[in-house]
Amino acid sequence: MKTFNKKLLVRLTEDEKLLIDKRAREARLSTSRFLVKAGRLGKIMQRFSAAETEQIAKVSFHLSRTGTNLNQIAHNLNYVNTTGDDAAAPSAAEVRATLRELQDLIIEVRTLLSS
Hints:
The protein has helices at about 15-25, 30-40, 50-85, 90-115. The radius of gyration is 26 Å and the shape is elongated. By secondary structure, it is mainly alpha-helical. It has 2 domains: about 10-45; about 50-115. Helix 1 crosses helix 2 and helix 3 packs antiparallel against helix 4. The longest helix has about 35 residues, at about 50-85.
């Protein structure tokens, strides 16, 4: 039989305590065993640093802007396809510029995710 001889002081709010006690009862475990099991098996989402959060916000903004550009290009191409009005077609330079932006953002996201 295991000997549990270590103690851990945990500070929490009344609501957190009630929630943990409720979940422990539902799992038919003591609060202590529930917390140990949750700590061993649960997944905790890692918090991002301020710099990472800023980088994610920047990438998100650029992705949104690029998505808007792609949407406009797609809309114009659909318009051209349905009306035959070539004047509304995006230029090859616009399409290439948007694709370059996407490639840069993909690299930036991969770099961010690998660090």
